[in-house]
Amino acid sequence: xxxxxxxxxxxxxxxxxxxxxxxxxxxxxxxxxxxxxxxxxxxxxxxxxxxxxxxxxxxxxxxxxxxxxxxxxxxxxxxxxxxxxxxxxxxxxxxxxxxxxxxxxxxxxxxxxxxxxxxxxxxxxxxxxxxxxxxxxxxxxxxxxxxxxxxxxxxxxxxxxxxxxxxxxxxxxxxxxxxxxxxxxxxxxxxxxxxxxxxxxx
Amino acid sequence: xxxxxxxxxxxxxxxxxxxxxxxxxxxxxxxxxxxxxxxxxxxxxxxxxxxxxxxxxxxxxxxxxxxxxxxxxxxxxxxxxxxxxxxxxxxxxxxxxxxxxxxxxxxxxxxxxxxxxxxxxxxx
Lengths: 202, 124
Known about the structure:
Order of helices and strands of chain A: HEHEHEEHEHEHEH
Number of domains of chain A: 1
Low-confidence stretches of chain B: 1-9
Family (chain A): Belongs to the GPN-loop GTPase family.
Number of strands of chain A: 7
Protein name (chain A): ATP-binding protein
Low-confidence stretches of chain A: 54-69
Order of helices and strands of chain B: HEHEHHEH
Strand content of chain A: 25-35%
Pfam family, one (chain A): ATP_bind_1
Keywords (chain A): ATP-binding, GTP-binding, Hydrolase, Nucleotide-binding
Largest sheet of chain A: 7 strands, mixed
CATH class of chain A: Alpha Beta
Helix content of chain B: 25-40%
Strand order of the largest sheet of chain B: 2-1-3
Structural class of chain A: alpha/beta
Number of strands of chain B: 3
Oligomer: heterodimer
Number of helices of chain B: 5
Number of helices of chain A: 7
Strand content of chain B: 5-15%
InterPro entries (chain A): Gliding_Motility_GTPase, Gpn, P-loop_NTPase
Shape of chain A: globular
Structural class of chain B: mainly alpha
Helix content of chain A: 25-40%
Largest interface: A-B, 49 and 45 residues
């Protein structure tokens, strides 16, 4: 019996699922979301698919295709283990606007979001910025500095996006792990400041 | 539905068993909503229950090493998240698994946890 018991205890310990937190990586198509997730993740970025049924089909442009047609949307994600029983999951949000309903699920309970920006296509990030402002989810802007693209200062980007002064804007290279880490640290610090401000009396 | 179903049967259709065939056509999990980052723990091994259908057994199998999030299970098995949720609902009903509750959307992780995350990221 004893061995059964200790097996059980060991299993319980090993199997304590612990706490999982979620950070979203949003931005336009091809802006480097998957690259950023991959550079900081301890596992190769995984891809999971959600099959869309009526929920998505209504707003999908599927002209000429019958309404029951299903389509799939892929989400890339990665994981960072902070310590035993505390993990951070990174989700690259689907780029296309028609998957907004998935964003709702992804944003639910999220710690915060990184909006990746390519200054050559600044407008691609507008929907993401609007979404997170509306949801009051802590977010920041990370400018992915593509080789050959003109470099703008964070303040230029902030004013171009008309962002509140307290929203962090940083330059990054999504391919570099160190750079990706700095982005995530900036986001969690921002989220922490927002949480503290919300809790402060008055 | 049946017409659309038949259209899947061609060389490029992939697996002959369509994903939702594993769920008996169900698209909604019986139990709770499984969040993408809800962590799932196996309390049984697939061989404990030889009557388990293949899909359910496959889920239990990938959980033998360590707890995984719903999203990871889906990616690991290359199944749509919706299918995995239904399978998890069945497994939970049969007490083969336990599922952690993620941080509720309305509640924020506490200050100490955020501090830990920041320090942990810096130390990576």
